[in-house]
Amino acid sequence: MKVRVTTRHINSNRDPEKLKSYAVKKSKRIEKYLRSGAEACDVNFVLSSEKFRDTAEISINSRNLKAASSFETTDMYTAIDSAVDVIIKQLKKETDKKKTSKRRTAAKNKEGAPESGIGKLTNIKVRRLPKKPMTIEEASLQIRVSDANFVTFRNSASNEMNVLYIDDRGQLTLIEP
Questions:
Q1: Across 162-173, average pLDDT
Q2: Residue-range domain boundaries for the chain
Q3: pLDDT at residue 12 greater than cutoff 70
Q4: What is the CATH number that goes with domain 136-175?
Q5: Residues contacting 14, CB < 8 A, separation 6+
Q6: DSSP state letter for 23
Protein backbone atom coordinates (compact mmCIF):
# COMPACT_ATOMS: atom_id res chain seq x y z
CA MET A 1 0.00 0.00 0.00
CA LYS A 2 1.40 3.36 -1.03
CA VAL A 3 0.42 6.33 1.10
CA ARG A 4 0.91 9.81 -0.28
CA VAL A 5 0.14 12.93 1.76
CA THR A 6 -0.16 16.35 0.13
CA THR A 7 -0.57 19.55 2.12
CA ARG A 8 -1.96 22.78 0.68
CA HIS A 9 -2.04 26.22 2.22
CA ILE A 10 -1.06 25.00 5.69
CA ASN A 11 -0.21 27.90 7.99
CA SER A 12 3.32 28.21 9.30
CA ASN A 13 2.13 27.94 12.92
CA ARG A 14 1.15 24.27 12.24
CA ASP A 15 3.81 21.71 11.48
CA PRO A 16 2.99 20.02 8.14
CA GLU A 17 5.28 17.10 8.98
CA LYS A 18 3.25 16.29 12.11
CA LEU A 19 0.07 16.33 10.04
CA LYS A 20 1.66 14.03 7.46
CA SER A 21 2.83 11.55 10.09
CA TYR A 22 -0.62 11.63 11.72
CA ALA A 23 -2.27 10.87 8.36
CA VAL A 24 0.14 7.97 7.71
CA LYS A 25 -0.58 6.62 11.20
CA LYS A 26 -4.33 6.77 10.54
CA SER A 27 -3.90 5.04 7.18
CA LYS A 28 -2.91 1.88 9.10
CA ARG A 29 -6.59 1.61 10.14
CA ILE A 30 -7.56 1.55 6.46
CA GLU A 31 -4.96 -1.06 5.56
CA LYS A 32 -6.75 -4.00 7.23
CA TYR A 33 -9.77 -3.50 4.95
CA LEU A 34 -7.54 -3.57 1.86
CA ARG A 35 -5.84 -6.93 2.43
CA SER A 36 -6.59 -8.31 -1.02
CA GLY A 37 -4.12 -6.63 -3.34
CA ALA A 38 -2.95 -4.14 -0.73
CA GLU A 39 0.45 -3.81 -2.43
CA ALA A 40 -1.26 -2.45 -5.57
CA CYS A 41 -3.32 0.09 -3.66
CA ASP A 42 -2.73 3.85 -3.58
CA VAL A 43 -4.04 5.94 -0.69
CA ASN A 44 -3.87 9.69 -1.27
CA PHE A 45 -4.42 12.26 1.47
CA VAL A 46 -4.92 15.91 0.55
CA LEU A 47 -4.84 18.21 3.58
CA SER A 48 -5.78 21.81 2.90
CA SER A 49 -6.64 24.88 4.89
CA GLU A 50 -8.66 27.96 3.88
CA LYS A 51 -9.49 30.70 6.33
CA PHE A 52 -11.24 28.87 9.19
CA ARG A 53 -11.84 25.59 7.37
CA ASP A 54 -9.54 22.59 7.42
CA THR A 55 -10.30 19.90 4.85
CA ALA A 56 -9.05 16.32 4.69
CA GLU A 57 -9.67 14.39 1.48
CA ILE A 58 -8.85 10.70 1.07
CA SER A 59 -8.96 8.75 -2.17
CA ILE A 60 -8.20 5.06 -2.60
CA ASN A 61 -7.39 3.52 -5.98
CA SER A 62 -6.73 -0.15 -6.47
CA ARG A 63 -7.41 -2.80 -9.09
CA ASN A 64 -10.92 -3.61 -7.93
CA LEU A 65 -11.85 -0.75 -5.61
CA LYS A 66 -12.15 3.00 -5.78
CA ALA A 67 -13.34 5.04 -2.82
CA ALA A 68 -13.15 8.66 -1.75
CA SER A 69 -14.16 10.76 1.21
CA SER A 70 -13.84 14.37 2.23
CA PHE A 71 -14.44 16.03 5.57
CA GLU A 72 -14.31 19.69 6.52
CA THR A 73 -14.06 21.13 10.04
CA THR A 74 -12.13 23.70 12.07
CA ASP A 75 -9.52 21.21 13.33
CA MET A 76 -7.27 19.29 10.92
CA TYR A 77 -6.84 16.27 13.20
CA THR A 78 -10.60 15.91 13.55
CA ALA A 79 -11.01 16.23 9.79
CA ILE A 80 -8.47 13.43 9.21
CA ASP A 81 -10.17 11.17 11.78
CA SER A 82 -13.64 11.76 10.34
CA ALA A 83 -12.52 11.24 6.73
CA VAL A 84 -10.84 7.96 7.73
CA ASP A 85 -14.05 6.86 9.49
CA VAL A 86 -16.09 7.57 6.34
CA ILE A 87 -13.64 5.61 4.17
CA ILE A 88 -13.72 2.66 6.58
CA LYS A 89 -17.50 2.66 6.46
CA GLN A 90 -17.40 2.55 2.65
CA LEU A 91 -14.84 -0.26 2.65
CA LYS A 92 -16.88 -2.30 5.16
CA LYS A 93 -19.92 -1.93 2.93
CA GLU A 94 -17.96 -3.17 -0.09
CA THR A 95 -16.50 -6.16 1.76
CA ASP A 96 -19.96 -7.07 3.09
CA LYS A 97 -21.29 -7.03 -0.48
CA LYS A 98 -18.52 -9.36 -1.58
CA LYS A 99 -19.11 -11.73 1.35
CA THR A 100 -22.84 -11.99 0.73
CA SER A 101 -22.35 -12.59 -2.98
CA LYS A 102 -19.85 -15.36 -2.20
CA ARG A 103 -22.27 -16.90 0.27
CA ARG A 104 -25.03 -16.92 -2.31
CA THR A 105 -22.91 -18.81 -4.80
CA ALA A 106 -21.77 -21.29 -2.14
CA ALA A 107 -25.36 -22.17 -1.28
CA LYS A 108 -25.75 -24.20 -4.47
CA ASN A 109 -25.85 -27.95 -4.40
CA LYS A 110 -23.67 -30.28 -6.46
CA GLU A 111 -25.79 -29.97 -9.62
CA GLY A 112 -25.46 -26.18 -9.57
CA ALA A 113 -29.08 -25.44 -8.74
CA PRO A 114 -29.82 -23.41 -5.63
CA GLU A 115 -31.00 -25.42 -2.68
CA SER A 116 -34.54 -24.86 -1.57
CA GLY A 117 -35.39 -23.63 1.90
CA ILE A 118 -37.32 -26.83 2.59
CA GLY A 119 -34.22 -28.96 2.99
CA LYS A 120 -33.95 -32.60 2.07
CA LEU A 121 -37.22 -34.44 1.74
CA THR A 122 -37.51 -37.71 3.60
CA ASN A 123 -40.12 -40.45 3.73
CA ILE A 124 -41.15 -40.06 0.11
CA LYS A 125 -43.60 -42.65 -1.11
CA VAL A 126 -42.88 -43.80 -4.64
CA ARG A 127 -45.70 -45.09 -6.84
CA ARG A 128 -44.85 -46.86 -10.04
CA LEU A 129 -46.97 -46.36 -13.12
CA PRO A 130 -48.13 -49.40 -15.01
CA LYS A 131 -45.95 -50.05 -18.05
CA LYS A 132 -48.87 -51.23 -20.13
CA PRO A 133 -50.75 -48.40 -21.92
CA MET A 134 -54.41 -47.89 -20.91
CA THR A 135 -57.47 -46.55 -22.57
CA ILE A 136 -59.44 -43.72 -20.99
CA GLU A 137 -62.15 -46.21 -19.94
CA GLU A 138 -59.59 -48.42 -18.14
CA ALA A 139 -58.17 -45.34 -16.35
CA SER A 140 -61.66 -44.28 -15.21
CA LEU A 141 -62.24 -47.79 -13.81
CA GLN A 142 -58.84 -47.59 -12.06
CA ILE A 143 -59.68 -44.26 -10.40
CA ARG A 144 -63.05 -45.57 -9.21
CA VAL A 145 -61.59 -48.69 -7.55
CA SER A 146 -58.70 -46.80 -5.91
CA ASP A 147 -59.01 -44.18 -3.19
CA ALA A 148 -56.90 -41.65 -5.14
CA ASN A 149 -58.27 -38.47 -6.69
CA PHE A 150 -56.23 -38.86 -9.86
CA VAL A 151 -54.56 -41.43 -12.13
CA THR A 152 -51.66 -40.86 -14.48
CA PHE A 153 -51.39 -43.23 -17.41
CA ARG A 154 -50.02 -43.68 -20.90
CA ASN A 155 -52.88 -43.35 -23.35
CA SER A 156 -52.95 -46.34 -25.71
CA ALA A 157 -54.55 -44.29 -28.50
CA SER A 158 -51.98 -41.43 -28.57
CA ASN A 159 -49.09 -43.05 -26.63
CA GLU A 160 -48.85 -39.81 -24.55
CA MET A 161 -48.93 -39.37 -20.78
CA ASN A 162 -52.37 -38.31 -19.54
CA VAL A 163 -53.91 -37.46 -16.19
CA LEU A 164 -57.45 -38.31 -15.24
CA TYR A 165 -58.76 -36.71 -12.05
CA ILE A 166 -61.96 -36.08 -10.12
CA ASP A 167 -62.67 -32.35 -9.90
CA ASP A 168 -64.54 -30.44 -7.16
CA ARG A 169 -67.95 -31.27 -8.67
CA GLY A 170 -67.15 -35.00 -8.73
CA GLN A 171 -66.78 -35.10 -12.49
CA LEU A 172 -63.93 -36.94 -14.23
CA THR A 173 -61.56 -34.62 -16.09
CA LEU A 174 -58.86 -35.67 -18.55
CA ILE A 175 -55.62 -33.72 -19.06
CA GLU A 176 -53.75 -34.34 -22.30
CA PRO A 177 -50.45 -32.80 -23.44
A1: 84
A2: 2-104, 136-175
A3: no
A4: 3.30.505.50
A5: 49, 76
A6: H
